[in-house]
Specification:
Length: 410
């Protein structure tokens, strides 16, 4: 979508870095994510991450929920501002291609790394970091046909088929979540009683990641309308919401015990507490950001904005690089350096590689996906363009949908 908002890009960039940090921990210090009986390499300090708000460092699931809330907002905010239904049609038609092109390149990267045996470093590293206590080993036999199928279909429609790059489990949620908010915005977004439909969607998706998209869309409607509903400049209210949102975002992904700091949240109300609390926390962060000029200035700084620009690329390629390059460095350093030092150097060196590679991926592949999706949409609309129109604005390929919409809702 055009007209990007700098501070939203900045938030997305910080969230992408946080997902990357989580995967550093998952492979080289899994006790910092999962706790339990996993080996400790840095002392009892590691148990503070899955049991306290310190776990915000590397809170990958929380960061993914931020991505989803951002998507719900960004994909619909221009529509709510302009009331131009062609924006929804354009976004719907272009969405798959826009997401697919970078995903295809990332899967091919993983296929090459697996075919050359570079993922063997992952198995060696995880045997050291987790030993026999960690059984969730990432393994697959590389096959080019299977890789293409997974990139084109499995990642978007059967999310259990993402073994070439495990982070792609989010693509199915992202794609269908996008379609969900496009549909809700198009059919109900201009109705006076649309709040009723929004509430129904919230209840319907209360226990799934799609709730994040709906909340993001509701915020887009609210903050791009003429009303002052949900808007506030009260610093006390915003501070309380920010702290609460961060606390909920630190809710652990491992089971919560009775002596946990989060015991009172484990009350059985939510079917999957880690999803629900992370979505609520992400929504609070988003709400505060939309109201706070101070946070907007921070996330509009050059570094967060740059990270936001390359965030999709970073998200797609960081796991294969960690599973090969990072693990290789760690294995070389581990025999001669203390564990913590080897971990720190491996992660720092990998970050220095991942960021420039993400920029190149963004420039030559992610941007190509955006351009290709626009070209595809323009080709479709060309079929609806009057033969002698000249400078007349081209007709959108959506007249049938609009006619049905007008008959039902007008």
């Amino acid at each position: 979508m055009t007209g990007k908002i700098a501070y939203l890009d900045g938030l997305r960039g910080i969230a992408a870095v946080n997902v990357m940090i989580m995967h550093f921990f998952v492979i080289l210090a899994p006790a910092m994510v999962y706790g339990g009986d996993l080996p400790l390499h840095l002392g009892s300090f590691e148990h503070l991450f899955p049991t306290t708000p310190l776990g915000l460092i590397g809170a990958g699931n929380f960061s993914v929920c931020i991505f989803f809330v951002l998507s719900g907002y960004v994909l619909t905010q221009k529509y709510f501002r302009t009331k131009d239904r062609n924006i929804i049609i354009s976004g719907t038609v272009r969405r798959y291609i826009r997401l697919f092109v970078p995903v295809f390149a990332a899967v091919m990267l993983s296929f090459v790394l697996a075919s050359t045996g570079l993922y063997s470093y992952y198995f060696e590293a995880i045997n050291i970091s987790a030993g026999s206590n960690y059984r969730d080993y990432w393994t697959f036999a590389p096959d080019i046909i299977d890789a293409v199928k997974q990139a084109a279909w499995g990642s978007f429609f059967t999310s259990n088929e993402t073994y070439y790059n495990p982070v792609l489990w989010t693509m199915k949620v992202e794609f269908f979540g996008s379609m969900l908010v496009f549909a809700i915005a198009l059919f109900f977004g201009q109705l006076r009683n649309r709040l009723t439909f929004y509430l129904a969607a919230i209840v319907l998706f209360l226990h799934s990641y799609y709730l994040a998209f709906v909340i993001g869309m509701v915020l887009a409607d609210t903050f791009n309308s003429q009303t002052r509903i949900l808007k506030t400049g009260n610093k006390t209210v915003l501070s309380v919401l920010l702290i609460t949102g961060l606390f909920l975002g630190s809710y652990p992904i491992n089971p919560v015990t009775g002596d946990s700091l989060y015991w009172f949240l484990n009350n059985g109300f939510f079917r999957t507490p880690k999803i629900s609390y992370h979505i609520i926390g992400a929504s609070m962060i988003m709400y505060v950001l939309l109201n706070s000029q101070l946070l907007q200035k921070f996330f509009s700084l050059p570094v967060p904005v740059f990270l936001g620009k390359i965030s999709y690329s970073m998200y797609l390629i960081h796991f294969p690089i960690i599973s090969s390059f990072t693990c290789a460095i760690f294995l070389a350093l581990y025999p001669v350096l203390p564990y913590g030092t080897a971990l720190l150097i491996s992660c720092a060196a990998s970050t220095l590689l991942i960021i420039p590679l993400s920029y190149l991926f963004y420039r030559y592949i992610d941007s190509a996906g955006v351009k290709l999706s626009k070209k595809f949409y323009n080709r479709l609309t060309d079929f609806r363009k009057p033969a002698a129109s000249g400078n007349i604005k081209q007709e959108q390929a959506s007249s049938t949908i609009f006619t049905i919409y007008d008959k039902i809702f007008k």
